[in-house]
Design a protein that fits this description.
Elements lengths: L2 E7 L3 H12 L5 E3 L2 E7 L2 E7 L6 E9 L2 H13 L4 E9 L2 E9 L5 E10 L17
Parallel strand pairs: 1-4, 5-8
Antiparallel strand pairs: 1-5, 2-3, 3-4, 6-7, 7-8
């Protein structure tokens, strides 16, 4: 089963973590000094916030595949639809090792399809943040 992913950039991670924990009635499943994530079953969503974006607001959206097979199906469906994609492949982002393909909607909102293989120690491939905002 795929899961909808929403990543929001926030100005104050601590206040936002308290807000979303109250809103969802659950504590984050992953929490770092610059990142927090909730894996909710009702509604089925992977919701993340970080203090790494250039400005507060929607950073990107996504569809999380449960396994490699589902990721392949998602990736092929997007390509067969004729959408222009960026295959990032295996990468480290949001404290996880994942396989990703990116696409943008007509308004420029980034969507990622991805399959997470395992947890990672750092937000991305470097211990010191090199990129702002989304992972691509």
């Amino acid at each position: 089963m795929t899961r909808l992913h929403i990543h929001v950039s926030v100005d104050d991670l601590e206040q936002s973590t308290k807000f979303y924990s109250a809103l969802f009635g659950a504590e984050p499943t992953k929490q770092k000094t610059d990142y927090a994530k909730w894996m909710l079953d009702d509604p089925g969503i992977n919701f993340a916030i970080s203090a790494r974006g250039a400005k507060a607001g929607l950073d990107h959206l996504g569809i999380q595949a449960k396994d490699k097979s589902e990721m392949t199906t998602l990736r092929e469906g997007i390509k067969q639809a004729g959408l222009s994609t960026f295959d990032e492949g295996e990468t480290t982002c949001c404290y996880a090792k994942s396989d990703k393909t990116w696409v943008q909607d007509p308004s420029g909102i980034a969507w990622e399809t991805y399959h997470t293989m395992k947890e990672a120690e750092f937000f991305n491939d470097a211990p010191i943040p090199e990129k702002e905002g989304g992972c691509w």
